[in-house]
Specification:
Blueprint: H1 2-22, H2 26-54, H3 59-79, H4 85-110, H5 123-151, H6 157-165, H7 167-193, H8 200-218, H9 226-248, H10 251-274, H11 279-285, H12 308-316, E1 320-325, H13 327-332, H14 335-347, E2 351-356, H15 366-373, E3 381-383, H16 384-387, E4 396-400, H17 409-412, E5 432-436, E6 456-460, H18 463-476
Parallel strand pairs: 1-2, 1-4, 2-3, 4-5, 5-6
Helix pairs in contact: 1-2, 1-10, 4-5, 4-8, 4-9, 5-7, 5-8, 5-9, 7-8, 9-10, 12-18, 14-18
Family: Belongs to the PNT beta subunit family.
Subcellular location: Cell inner membrane
Function: The transhydrogenation between NADH and NADP is coupled to respiration and ATP hydrolysis and functions as a proton pump across the membrane.
Length: about 475
């Protein structure tokens, strides 16, 4: 039976890797997800066979858990709009971390404080793996819940600004919590070593202190850093799952957790580099303190409004148009209208490209997913490093709901909270048209001088409605 289980695990791991490779592009992402999901199904079957071969299995409980998990996973995923996908990702990631923490808790109870182990289980591995899983899983769970609340904007602007401004106090609390966690884990380790075990309250203390640490780390981090935080929490969840796999001697959890942890860590690093920030600076430096600015200082100039007719004329007679999508495009669900507008422009001989900032939107790859949903060609989506040199040669740049990623203060104003963050060089275009509902600041909460620039004009209103009006004007030309 062990040969069958190991064979199924190998198949599952191959499917994991093949599925992950499919996520490198929008055209293969759906297939990649299905392949990886099939791999997870194989791993679940292999694990159940392994457990059933060594001990009786309560199949009613297993089937009930599988059914409940399927409903809780499929229904929200089906009903969640694309604009809320970052929140769903944060929530699902948190559930994974919470599950790992509960596994560590159950292992503590089952082994009487890690003091009663079978001959086939290493006490050191069980102890280290379980405690690591308990701490990191709990941090990931509660941190992800805070990320969900922030992305869903349930905390309120005033409360969030207050939290960001209290970053120093949270850092002091986190230092104290780390000391508590280390002391509690040390006590559990001593108890496991002398064979007497520890009181169940010690593992509860570890979980509570770790949960508070997760809350206190993420609470003062503002919106500008949230995509990086989501990616980092995802990596932590993967590592905690791998640690739990070591404790349980479950190969599937080890491999799957390491794949998630490694890929999440790589993505986090790439995004941090794209923002010209170090990961410790993001976690402990509260780059999101930009949310305290709130557009202070008042208007920086005169805003020039434009019309759909004027925008259509300028783009129709341009050689090149660059579309810069942001979260406002996601909110308005304007991606299909933008694709139709681009088709009309291309029919008139205009070259249309899409400039994608690594942290545009609310999660990694948010804009790529939206545009791919509208069948925008992947080759037309240009990453920041590939498109920035072209803005000076671009006749019209159409900014749709993007704010912070186009803010020239990141280059020119050393006092700005986002100073040093690489941005799209939209202000270097010959003409800029910005589609926004109002003059409200972006997610980082600071004023954008681009909106007052001489070359910029504002087309106010819902992005989808505005683009559709431009489409009608283009048809009439």
């Amino acid at each position: 039976m062990s040969y069958l289980v190991n064979g199924l695990y190998i198949v599952a791991f191959a499917l994991f890797i093949l599925g992950l490779s499919g996520l490198t592009g929008p055209k293969t992402a759906v297939r990649g997800n299905w392949i990886a999901a099939a791999g997870m199904g194989v791993a679940v079957v292999a694990t159940l066979i392994k457990i059933g071969d060594t001990a009786p299995v309560n199949w009613v409980l297993v089937v009930t858990g599988l059914a409940l998990g399927t409903v809780l996973g499929v229904v929200p995923a089906k009903r969640t709009r694309m604009t809320a996908m970052p929140q769903l990702v944060a929530l699902f990631n948190g559930v994974g971390g919470g599950t790992v923490a509960l596994i560590a808790w159950s292992e503590f109870i089952e082994t009487d404080g890690f003091s009663h182990l079978g001959a086939d289980r290493s006490p050191a591995v069980l102890l280290a793996g379980s405690l690591f899983a308990a701490v990191v899983g709990s941090v990931s769970f509660w941190g992800s819940l805070v990320a969900f609340l922030k992305l869903q904007e349930l905390l309120g602007k005033g409360l969030e600004r207050g939290l960001v401004s209290s970053a120093r106090a949270f850092q002091v609390l986190n230092v104290l919590l780390v000391l508590v966690i280390l002391a509690a884990c040390g006590h559990i380790g001593v108890g496991a070593g002398d064979g007497g075990g520890s009181s169940a309250w010690w593992i509860v203390l570890v979980l509570i202190a770790s949960g508070l640490a997760g809350l206190f780390v993420v609470l003062p981090i503002g919106g500008a850093d949230m995509p990086v935080v989501i990616s980092l929490l995802n990596a932590l969840t993967g590592l905690s799952a791998a640690a739990a796999g070591l404790a349980l001697d479950n190969t599937a959890m080890i491999v799957a957790g390491m794949i998630v942890g490694a890929s999440g860590a790589i993505l986090t690093n790439l995004m941090a580099v794209a923002m010209n920030r170090s990961i410790p600076a993001i976690v402990f430096g509260s780059f999101g303190a930009a949310t305290t600015a709130g557009g202070e200082g008042g208007p920086q100039g005169v805003v020039k409004a434009t019309s759909a007719s004027d925008a259509a004329i300028r783009m129709a007679y341009a050689a090149q148009v660059v579309v810069v999508p942001g979260y406002g495009l996601a909110v308005a669900q304007a991606q299909h209208a933008v694709k139709d507008m681009a088709a009309l422009l291309e029919a008139k001989g205009v070259e249309v490209k899409y400039a994608i900032h690594p942290v545009a939107g609310r999660m990694p790859g948010h804009m790529n997913v939206l545009l791919a949903e509208a069948d925008v060609e992947y080759d037309a989506m240009k990453e920041m490093d590939d498109i920035n040199d072209e803005f000076s040669r671009t006749d019209v740049t159409l900014v749709i709901g993007a704010n912070d990623v186009t803010n020239p203060s990141a280059r020119t104003d050393s006092s700005s909270p986002i100073y040093g963050m690489p941005i799209l060089n939209v202000d270097q275009s010959r003409s800029v048209i910005v589609l926004k509902r109002s003059m409200s600041s972006g997610y980082a909460g600071i004023e954008n001088p681009l909106f007052f620039a001489d070359r910029t004009s504002m087309l106010f209103g819902d992005a989808k409605k505005s683009v559709n009006e431009v489409i009608e004007e283009l048809k009439a030309l």
